[in-house]
Amino acid sequence: MAELEDRTRRILSELDSQGLRRELRSPSGIDLSSNDYLGLADHPLIRGAMARAVLQEGVGSTASRLLRGERKAFQDVERRFADWKGTEASLYFSSGYAANLGVLSSFLQEGDIVFSDELNHASLIDGMRLGRARRVIFPHCDARALRSALVSEQVPGQRFLVTESLFSMDGDLAPLEDYAELCRETGTALIVDEAHAVGVFGERGSGRIEQAGVGNDVFLSVNTAGKALGVCGAFVAGPRWAIEYLIQRARTFVFTTAAPPSLAAALDAALSVVVREPELRARTLRSAGKLRTMLAEMGVHVPQGESQIIPIVLGDNERAMAAAEALRKDGFDVRAIRPPTVPRGTSRLRVSVNAKLREPDLEAFRSSLVTALAEKVACRAASL
Questions:
Q1: Which long-range contacts does 199-203 make (Cβ < 8 Å, 24+ apart)?
Q2: Active site annotation includes 164
Q3: Residue 234: phi, psi to the nearest 5?
Q4: Alpha-carbon distance 361 to 380, whole Å?
Q5: Against a cut of 0.85, is the pTM above it?
């Protein structure tokens, strides 16, 4: 054990020296970092539904859903989610990570090939590693490069394309229309992670797949419920036969204790809010557009985009951490994102806009950010 402790401490020391050691910190200040895009995590309708369900159902499910953990409430909310998503069926997993691992490890078989965007989330990468298909990584959101890879790579088995619809660190949108066309042409099964898009995009709010009009071309979608929907877990949506297969083969479903039944009630209430209050997602995207404009006018480089996620790339770890700390002192909760979450040399502030923010909040944040960036640049120049 002494050698293991020494090895571990050396690694932690290296993280410290590189400015990469992370810490757990409770929320404080105005939220510009969470994924609670619609502000549903403390919505009174959802809180009330969950509280009543706890009193009725208790706090635990007692077993996996294939044992004694099944409840009618799960079946009901899965049917409702599938209807909302425009698919035949859906299946609820305990987390988005578990859903991605379950989907990819179950369907990707030996002899298959999977094409993956180079900036896909860690859960997608790990799921593909657990699968037995050969992996081909293509440049980020590059449909032309993907087309070339699809044409040149020949395999005896099934082809898969795996992508996020909205990338969580860059805030950009995958060209789903182009991908759908390529998948139709090549017989490729399209799997889309809608984690950051579900609840925010589309006329019904069901995500980028709806907005892009490519529902008929998507094999499976993974839809996190712990972000815009304000609760937790994730729904995998798709054809009934595929969902039935996951019930039989997805280890992250079969061998996991079911979520507390009260979560099903909360999820059902969250879907009701998203459907009944479209202004929440409209307000979120309007506010994000306003903030992008405000920052650009003040000389802060922000990429053009349509989403609620605004990356402010600062480069080195120290500068990103210093800027986040300055903002925290001014009452804004914005976190520094560093490698390995993002590529080396692209440490950033990940600004996440939500429906609760008002224009005075955005203006105050802009002023605080501009000051913080100017001070950190000056301090860094003086130290060189």
A1: 199/37, 199/38, 199/40, 199/227, 199/228, 199/229, 199/274, 199/281, 200/37, 200/38, 200/166, 200/228, 200/281, 200/284, 200/285, 200/307, 200/308, 201/165, 201/166, 201/281
A2: yes
A3: -160, 145
A4: 28
A5: yes
Decide if 35 is catalytic.
Answer: yes
Q: E-assigned strands of 142-240? A: 159-164, 188-193, 220-224, 234-238
Residue 193 a catalytic site member: yes
Whether 168 is catalytic is yes
Q: How far apart are CA 323 and CA 272, in angstroms?
A: 38
Cα–Cα distance, 290 to 126 (Å, whole number): 36
Cα–Cα distance between 304 and 171 in angstroms, integer? 9
- Does 329 qualify as catalytic in the annotation? no
What distance in Å separates the CA atoms of residue 307 and residue 215, rounded to the nearest whole number? 20
- Of the candidates 112, 117, 172, 193, the residue annotated as catalytic is 193
CA nearest to 253, candidates 60, 18, 25, 63: 63
- 223 classed as catalytic: no
Q: What is the full per-residue pLDDT of the chain (384 aa) written as tens digits?
A: 999 999 999 999 998 888 888 887 888 889 999 999 999 999 999 999 999 999 999 999 999 999 999 999 999 999 999 999 999 999 999 999 999 999 999 999 999 999 999 999 999 999 999 999 999 999 999 999 999 999 999 899 999 999 999 999 999 999 999 999 999 999 999 999 999 999 999 999 999 999 999 999 999 999 999 999 999 999 999 999 999 999 999 999 999 999 999 999 999 999 999 999 999 999 999 999 999 999 999 999 899 899 999 999 999 899 999 999 999 999 999 999 999 989 999 999 999 999 999 999 999 999 999 999 987 544 443 333
